[in-house]
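Quick question, first post here. What does this chain look like in 3D?
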Amino acid sequence: MRLLRVLEEQAYTPPGASPNLQDDVRLITSAPEDLGRLVEAGAFRRDLYYRINVIKLRLPNLAERREDIPFLAQHFISSFNKLQNKRVEGLSDDTLAIFLDHRWPGNVRELENAIEHAFIACSQGQILPEHLPDHFQGENRVGSRGDRGLSLKEQEKRLLLEALERNHWRRLATSRELGIDKNTLRRKIKRFGLKPPDADDTAS
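> Answer (accepted):
Ran it through. Tokens below.
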């Protein structure tokens, strides 16, 4: 296997060339499935697996980090606005609620595709539930989630609070998880009046 040879010997032969070339390379790989399980099932080469499994990082899927959804959605909206010369402002409260309730089996790519699909029917204003792909329509059930009646501001506050609690109120860790600047996080905490649970005890 040519890839295995590159990893073992750091040598390769370009097409049309006869001598081997040496190079110092580092390989970064990703997989949507657990390669260890595939190895045990005989669906992935064991020797290759142990060659690439040096440092292993697990990236949580979108369903495990729902607080990222508003930020990712706004990123995709800004990108498609530039590409398609449109003026879509963002998600409506109902659309965001549907996104927060969705399981996201297709991860971030599914979110991007949903936004791209919405741009077909929406050229300006907010993305509404009826602009989403068909498989989201069955999820447009008012009251199916406890936060479905919350405003966009209230939902952002809830997501921010969950991220802070998950990181034990460490602001640097929270800002890194959310992908925002620490000063932006500080302003949001102040705007929403968020405090750690022991703040009142300390104050008293």
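The first strand starts at residue 11 and ends at 12.
The first helix runs from residue 2 to 9.
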